[in-house]
Structures are given as C-alpha cells and as structure tokens.
Amino acid sequence: MTPGGPQAQTEELPVGLPGGLTEPPQPPPTNAVEGSSTWSLLDRLGLAFCWFLGLLFCAIAAAIVIYLLIKGIQFLKPSMLVTPAAAGFTEGESGGFSDAFFGTLILGVMSLTLALPTGVAIAVWLVEYGRPKALARVTEMTVEAIAGIPSVVFALFGTVIFSSAALGFLSRTNEGVVFGRSFFAAAAMLALEALPLIVASTREGLNAIPRHVREASYGVGKTKAATTRRILLPTCRPQIATGAMLGLGRIIGDTAIIVILLGATQNFSPVEGAPFPLNYLRGAGTTLTNFVYEASPTGNLNQPDKAYAAAFVLLFIVLLLNAATDLIHSRARKAGTWSH
Amino acid sequence: MESLTRQHAQVPPPIRRLDPQDPTPAAEAAPERSTNFVAAKRSIAAPQFSIRRMEVDKVSIHYDAKEAVKSVSLPIRQGEVLALIGPSGCGKTTLLRSLNRLTELTAAAKLTGSIRLDDVDIRLIEPTLLRRRVTMVFQQPNPFPMSVFDNIAYVLREQGSRRMKKKVLEPQVHSALQRAGLFEEVKDNLKHPALKLSGGQQQRLCIARALAAEPEVLLLDEPCSALDPQSTAVIEDLIVKLREDVAVVIVTHNLQQAYRIADHVAFMYLGDLVEYNSATRLFNTPAQDRTREYVSGAFG
Fold first, then answer.
1. ipTM of the assembly?
2. From A339, which residue of chain B is nearest by alpha-carbon distance?
3. What is the dotted CATH code of the domain comprising A93-287?
4. Taking CB atoms and an 8 Å cutoff, what residues of chain A touch B145?
5. Which domain does B54 fall in, by range?
6. Which one, A8, A139, A230, A310, has the greatest CB density within 10 A?
C-alpha cells in the first residue's frame, strides 16, 4: 500500500486497465481471525468447558489404551492365544486363553452373520418401502424397544427359548432335558442386541441419499430392487460398516449373555457324537470378556496378569475393527458425494 | 483428475451461432407493445424437421385435493426443443415427471387424461420400459457414486446384473459419452470417480447416462440451474444438437435460456397451460396478457 491510500493509487494506475476500470482497493494486510475476545463471559466459559471436556476424554482414552498396551505387552505371550486354560496352582500351569479368544471370534462371526443381513434388510424396508405405514411404525418401535432392553433380560429370555424341546438340536440334551446353553443360543441373543445399531446406522445412510439419486436410477428404467442393490446399498456401505462395527462392539463386549447363555466354562465343551463344527457350536464355551472377568481379582481364576493380557487382545480387536471402518469411510470420501 | 480439469479449462467459451438471415427481424417480431424481453436475436437455426413423438392430451394431475396440472394438451416433437416455463409451483415439473410416470412414485399423484408415446398410451407401457424410452436428467447433477464408465454401464446392463463384460459395453459407453460431448474430456480415465468431476461435467455425464438407454424423448428438469454460466452454455449447445436424435423437453426457470434454445415454449401458470407457441412468438408477440406479464418480468 502506498501512503496515499486507494485514492492516490487509482490515479497512478490506469495503465493496462481499459475503460477507466480501476483495481479494487487492496485490503490492508492483516491476519484478522474471529476471536472469542468479543464473546460474553458465559460463552467464553462454555467454550473453555468444551475444550476441557474434549481434552479430558482424549486423556482418559489415551490413558486406558496406553496402560493396557504396556500391561499387555508385559504379560501377553503369543502362546496364550493357542493354549487353552487349564487347572493349576501357578500362572505357568494354568495355560492361556485360546478358548476364550476363539470363542470371541466365533460368536462375533455368528452373531454378525445373523444380525447384519437382518438389520440391513429391516432398514431398507423401513426407508425404501415402509408400507403399510402402521406396520412400519410398529417395526420402528420394536427395533427401538430392542435397543433399550438390557442384555441380562435377553439372556433370560434366551434360556426360556433355547431350553424348549423343539430347539434341543441347538444345544446339549441329556435324557430329554435341553441344556439350552450353546454358541447358537448366545449368538442368536447377541445378534438381537446388535440389530438396532445396524438398523439405525443403515437407515441413517439411506436417508442421507438424496431422493433425486433414486429417481435417476428409476428414471433409466431400473427397478427398486436393482436400485437398492447397485446404488443405495453400495452408497451407504460406510454407514453399514459403522453399524456392524458398533454391533460387533456390543457383541464382543457383552458378558451377561455369555455367563447365562454360553455357560461360561473356561474351555470349549463340545457335544459328543455331533459332527465337527456342530459339536463345538452346540456346546458351551467362553469369551475374552468373560475370561477377563474371571481372571480379574474378583473372579474365580484370580490371575490379573492374564486378565491384562486378554484385555489387551480384546482392545486390539476393537481398534482393528475401528481402523477397518475408517478405511471404508475414507474410501467412500474419495468417491465423492452429491450436493443436496 | 488434474488432467481432466485442465482439459475442461481449455474448452473455449462457446459463442452462439449468429444467423445473418434471421427469419424474424426484430422490427417485425416486436411491435409497439413489445415486451422488451430480449434485445438479442434468437440465434439457433430453425429445426430441419419435426416428428410428433408424444402427445399430452387433456392431462390433469391431482395431489390429494390439490390440482397441480389442469387439463394440459401439448405435442412433443423430435427435431425440436420444447421448453416448459412458468413461476414456481405452476406444475411444469409435475407435468414433466408424469411423462415417464415418475410421478407414480409419489403415491398421492393421480393422473387423468392421456399421454401417448408413438400413439400408445403410456399407461399401457410397463414403467421400467417406458422410462428407458423417455429418460430424465435432474436439476442437481446426480451421477452414481461409481466410475464414469460404470455410470453408463449401469444403464446398459440388465437391471441389477453385472453381466456383460466391460469390453462388450465399451463401444456403447464411448458413444453415449460422445453424444453428450464428454468423451474427449474423460477418455483418458474412464475409471475416474464420477462424483469428482466438475458440476458441468457431472451434468453432461447424467445426459450421457440418459442417452445411453437410446431414448426417444429426453426430459430435462432445470438441468443448468446448479451450474455456472460457462457449463450452462456448453450444455445448451448440447441440447440443441440433441434435438434431432431425440425429442427434448426442458423445464427451465431461466427465460433467456428458453429463448436461446427452445423451438416451442409452453407457459404454465397455476397448473394451466396459458400459452403454447413458437419461442419467437411467445417471447416477442405473446397472445395472452399473462404471458406478456410473465416474460416481461411483471411477475414470477
């Protein structure tokens, strides 16, 4: 800026600017940023409080992860993942927690296999069809109700269902008495727990797709089914993944259903005489969460070192799932989105 | 991605073809009661031919108690561009959407009267089949979240199927992109995500998609309202070029645009078709007072 200011500048500058056009006055070279200094005291306190809470929760999360990381690395031996738990007086004799580890994996896969297609299907029906309206409303309310039910209640309900004679083939039976506790039973109830999260997340994804995108597909002669399969579901893949991730978090984090419906034995207890995968799935078992509980000082096993190791494995699985979800989200971001 | 945007920037700003022997000199077209609508001459050449493809016959459309379109009759011809103009809520978009039965997706809409495509009532044509013969481009560019190639391939393939390999579809995909004037800009990278193209390119991709189904009628619902002037000009040129291959119906809020590209214009007001006339007549010597008021900016 010349000292003369914009006025002086216009008189010097007509060179190269036809028709008496002048350059717009240059803004003064400041670096003005909106500050909170003009805010009222209450607003500033509020902002400070938000910052405080945000940082606090970061710190809490970091503390948990770092603590478990240190403890986990300290106590976790790879052999624990392949050695089943055993009875013994010392930590060396009592083995690892391979049954709990695989129990968690099996239950996660089984429950998600049940919950994911069902949840996505319910969400698609609610958003894309949803007629008659009354039925849609009832479905919505049912899903919401399921979301609010504590898992202990599911577990109790499950024992009633799976102890019935008709469902004896899903668990162990002894002289006509159905045991009612098995991977099948636990997976079914855990799926119910994950379902509302998947439905909610998928619905959110479907609702975020503008109506004209659907119409563009119908407008070139595609059916609703084709549109759903090729356009809508691929588009809300990130939200479905988020729902699955949240659901899986619930599934592998649950203990009530494990204790009541899986038997919470420390080892697999396959049913004799059944063919290979079925003998394990019909039998009782355990998961990492249950193992952590049992191995903690309040549990029956009382070997906190292994509890830390198992907790670390659990945390690692969850972080891995989170990373996978993030990957799906970032891929979707790269594909772009519509303006509304 | 970068090469695409650069290429797009190199396209020179299109200049309208000026016809030295304009059939309607301004003096004749604009008598004393001129609407003063346009100083510019209409610049596109008169259509070479016109074949009647669709016939809108006393069509009324109701949404519950509200009558959105009131007994409208119109011809839609290949070789011409038909523009529907009118203030917001006048029923022009509803009429447009009823031409390929998209209104049926809104359960409440009821249509009386008849719309015929090549002399067959469209209610007798299976909707998905009809919508391939009468395709639509929307206000917001809405390519599907997949590659440029797959956007077109999706239209060519049977419903949700993935059969028909890329190699087989390639010529058809290329030709659709060429017809929409997009091929040169995207040919180097047909795998480029469609939603990362510029707005104008996205809209031309949507036109290519609509053309890929080999339709007889192309419906455009304010296709340029979300675009910048330069992309708008490119698309207007394209629409004029397309009128010989397909019958084109365009809904627009932009009167200048209607004047620039349409051969016939239908002015609708509160569901009524107030005037249907050639573009020159409707804008310069409107038969109805309402039309004159609207095109001269008295309301709307």
1. 0.81
2. B140
3. 1.10.3720.10
4. 231, 234-235, 332, 335-337
5. 42-144+215-295
6. A310
